[in-house]
Structures are given as structure tokens and as C-alpha cells.
Amino acid sequence: MIFFATPGSDPAARIAGRNAAQETVQAIRKDFGFDKPLPVQYAIMMKKLFVTRDLTSFVNRGLEVVPQVMRAAPITLSLVFGAAVLWVFGSIAVGVLAAMYRDTVIDKGLMILALIGVSMPVFWLGELMNLVSQSRFHDTWLFSWVPGLGYKPFFDGPWMWFKTLVIPWFTLAALYIGIYGRVLRANLVEAYQEDYVRTARAKGLSPGRVMLRHALRMSMIPFVTMFGLDFGVLVGGAALLTEVVFGLNGVGRLTYQAMLNLDLPMILATVMYASFFVVVTNAIVDIIYVVIDPRVRGH
Amino acid sequence: MTDAALTVNPAEPKPRVGQSPMRRAWLILSRDKAAIGAFVVLMVIVLACLAAPLYAKYVAKSDPFRSNLSGSIEIDGKAEKIMQASTTGLGLGVTPIGPTWHGQYMLGADNQGRDVAARLLYGGRNSLLISSAATLICLVLAATIGISAGFFGGWVDMVLSRILEVLWAFPVYLLAISLSIVLLSQTIVLGPIEISSGSLALPIVIIGIIFVPYIARPVRGRVLSLRESEFVLAARGLGIPRWRILIKDILPNVTTTLIVYIPIMMALNIVTESALSFLSIGVQPPEASWGTIIQDGQGLLYTRPMVALAPGIAIVLTVLALNVLGDSVRDALDPRTKMR
């Protein structure tokens, strides 16, 4: 777990930045100090990023990198947090319902829906949502509340913030509801064959209680592991496609732009930011393990 | 236990002694309605895409790679311009013709006046080609790395596992994007092979590489457990050389693991390819793929939604069929993980 948790301290994440720069920028811009050895360059850049915080972009000269990331971060965080809430509750509902009504129409229908959710490219679903909510049905009662594309800060009005994000949340969550719902159902079905579930049923507990307190609790462990990985990566910029489709200038877009321009300081800043969140989510996941799995506490 | 649990389900083919796992899996698959349905859908899509040149020549009657801004076609005896004067907004500019539901321009035209239906089929060829080739590369690389790491152990395992972890540490999309941007910006010369920046080989290689850790790790795990299994220990005890154990005992057992991944990887690769192409760092114009057509359609989303919708539907259908097939193949080959 430690290895996944710290891609930032892992040289590879840094090498990507350096390589990307070496290709073209070095040749063009000697004045940025690219004639110095790479480790020296790297140390200077890290110092600028963390200590003096005045690292500037190579492409847009004079543009400071840290405020850029700070401006993009709340957008991505709002997007991913909302979607995460949706997908956790959505997939638990899908998984539990499908497992409880196993091999019935409900189960099959839910699993087909989940599979469709997994099969849709997120950017296409986003465009579809835009088409429906911004254009075709925008004038009907159903979608007339939908504001134009783009982000509205939370502190300028939480209601507006909420309205701009509802559709991106659903779009981003659809894929994960599908994946997690399927995995959860499989784990629940497996858990139902375990001894402890049989014991719980034998001692006369209600089916709902067996499901929620016994089977679901155990099945949540792999669920939480997956969640930690996906959440960290999404906050770190993997929500790029959703951001692009909905015109949200989040971290994903910032990283993407920086990569397109081979803007090394910006790449470095966004990668550092991303690894920070991967580490944080992994720490949170470890704490959640302790809460849901009593066996972990003993060690 | 009820009686029902003890009676053998007649629909389930009885595994006979001496039946190979492959043969048993094949039997199970050939009775799986979902798998057959998915396979038929896939075949229809593949055949349709293969027939793209025929469609372009005899049905669409236009070259889907050349812009056609001034042409017009005849529908029900009336001549219709392909690029029509805009009726919305200020009435300025032109809008490509919408779906005609006739042979020519069945799904309308894109902003270059090209036939979307014909481009869809040509795009499908590229999407399918890229996803299959990338799957092949990915599986071969993953099998080589996973088997070497698992079988030889020691420092080989150390080095390979670290490399996999480094790859794994990147978010998949960002890795693909950074690779694409670096590789697309120049012509790559590898000895006698020269890959130009617009070549289809680039998305194939990029997509082939990024998912290697996801498969190499389970393969390595499988080999590790196989290496300690009784039949391998017995073979070693008999003094059979290691390479022979590798080929005769390890490889066939890993193959099933790999086969399970084929449909799933193809599905994943189609989506990845379309995402990269959508960001215009995958398939490069004038070549088309489902992703690039969606991107073409983005600007026309509110006026001619079919340009973006049609390739998306094609992707969803293909990926859905592959996922259904993937589930069935896994259930057939690996009865322990029934429906995951």
C-alpha cells in the first residue's frame, strides 16, 4: 500500500516531468537554467514550489503556478466529492438490491444498467447530458433550472454551485456506480455463502439486518480499497474528461494544458498536488479499515 | 440444505473426467445465451466496419475523407445542399445537412460536409483495430513480464515489480496523455522502423503499454502460486528442466487467466482510444475513429447532435457486448468467481 500511496516521493512521477521538458524546452530556453545538471534544476524548482512559492510557468512567463493550482483545486474537489457521494450511495443501493433479489428481474435489470454505465465513455455521456439539459429539453420544466456550463464558486451562492454541478456529478458517478455496484453484488453473493452469515441467519436475525450488519460490512472492505484508489486519482486530475465536457477549469484540465504545452513547472505543481491527495485518501482509507474491520484493530 | 441444492442442474454441462478446461469452457459458452447474443452483436459491428469501403462506394457514394462543402444531393427528387444556410441564431454561416435516413448522408454530414455514416464505419475499423492490437501488445507484454517475474523470482522479480509499480503509480489517463503528447510531437526512428507522428501505431503502442501492470500483476500472482503447486514440485522432483516446466506446466495455466482478460481489455481499450482521440491526441486526422467523430460532433452538438451521438452509440454497443462476453468467458473459465 505504501508504494501506491506515495507516487510523489517516487522518482517516476518526477521523471515524467523532466523528460517532458527535456524534449523541447531545454533546447529552446537556456536561460531557464536547463544547462545545469538535472538534479540541480530539480532542487531549484522544488525550492521555488514549496519554500518561496514563486515558481512561474515556462509557457506563460510570469504566471505563478501555485495560485493556478489553488484556483483549480476547489473546482475539481467539488466535482469529485459530489460524484463520490453519489456513487457510494448509488452503488451500495444497486449492489444490495441486486444481491437481495438475486436472480430476479430486479437483479438482472440492475446489472444490465450497471453494465451500460460501465460501457459509456464519460465524455460522451457528458455531451448527451448537455444536449438534453442545455439544448433539447432546456425549455421544459425538467431542465429549465440548469444553468449554463462552467463553475460557480460555492461561497458566491451554494445553490448556484449546486445547480451547476448536479449534472456533472451524475455523469462522473455513472461509471463508478456501475463498477462498484457490480463488485459489491459479487462480494455480497459470496459473503452469503460464508459461515458467519449462516450463523447470523440461523440465530433468527431479520434478512435486512443480516444484509446490512453482517454481509455488507465485510463486503465493504474491497469496496473501500477501490474507492481510495479511484478517489485519489480523480481528485488528482483524472476527472479531466468530465471537466472538459462541462467547461470546468479544474486540475485535470490544468494538468492537461500543462502537458500539451510541456510546461514543466505546472506539471510539477499538479503532480505534487495529485500525489498529496493520493497520500491523504490512502490515509483515510486506512482509518476506515479500522472502523469497519475489527480484525485490523488487533494488529 | 434442500434437495434442490443436491440435484444437478440439467442445463449445466457435466464436467467429465479428462475434459480440458478449455473444452469445458467452450461447452459452457456455447450454451450461454448472453454470450452468444453479445458475440453476434460484435460480429455484426465488425463486419459492418470491414464493409466500410463498400458502403462508401455504393451506398454513401462519397469519399468520407474529403471535405465536400459545395456539393448537393438529391432526396425524393429535390436537390438539397449539403451545407445548408443556418436557420438558427443570426442566420449566418452554414449547418451541415442533418440525417436524411436515405443512402446518402444517412446520418447527416459533419462540418466538412463528409458523410457521417461512412466515417462511422471507417472510424470503427480504426477503433477496433487499435483496441485489438493494443490488447495483443498488452497481453504479450504482461504475460512476458508477469511470467518472468513470477517464475524466476529473485532480482528479476524485484526489478520487474518495481517497474510495474512505477507505471501503476500514474493515473492511467494522465500517463496516456503524457505519452501521446511526447510521442505525437515528433517522428520516432527506431532503427529501420520509422513511425510518423500521425501513425496509428502510436495510439496502439500507448494504449498497449498503459494497462500492462493491471494484467502483469495478476499473472505474476498466478505464476507464483503455480510454482509452489504440487504438480510443478513433482515435475521439478522428476528432474524436468525449468524451461520445459515453464512451457508445459506454467504457460497453459496462465493462458486461461489471459483469455479472461481479452474481452475486458478490448472494451477498456476502445473507451481509452476514444477518450484520447476526443482530446485530439489519439488518432490523427484525416484518419477517423469513433473518438475523433465525437470530437467533430462536439461543435455541432446542439444543431446536428447525430454526429456526436452515432459514434457514441457505436462505442456503447461494442463495449457493452464485449463486457457481456467478458463476464461469460470468465464464468466459463473460472467457475469460482461466478458473476463478479
Give an overview of the whole structure:
- The complex is a heterodimer of chains A (299) and B (340).
- By secondary structure, chain A is an all-alpha fold.
- Chain A has 13 helices and no strands.
- Chain A has 2 domains: 51 residues, no CATH class; 228 residues, MetI-like (MetI-like fold, Orthogonal Bundle), CATH 1.10.3720.
- Chain A starts with a helix and ends with a helix.
- In chain B, the strands form 3 sheets. A two-stranded antiparallel sheet of chain B has the order 1-2.
- Chain B is elongated and about 85 Å long.
- The interface between A and B is large, with 45 and 43 residues.
Outline:
The complex is a heterodimer of chains A (299) and B (340). Chain A is mainly α and 299 residues long. Helices cover 76% and strands 0% of the residues of chain A.
List its salient traits.
heterodimer; A: 299 residues; mainly alpha; MetI-like fold; 2 domains; globular; disordered N terminus; B: 340 residues; two-stranded antiparallel sheet; 13 helices; 63% helix
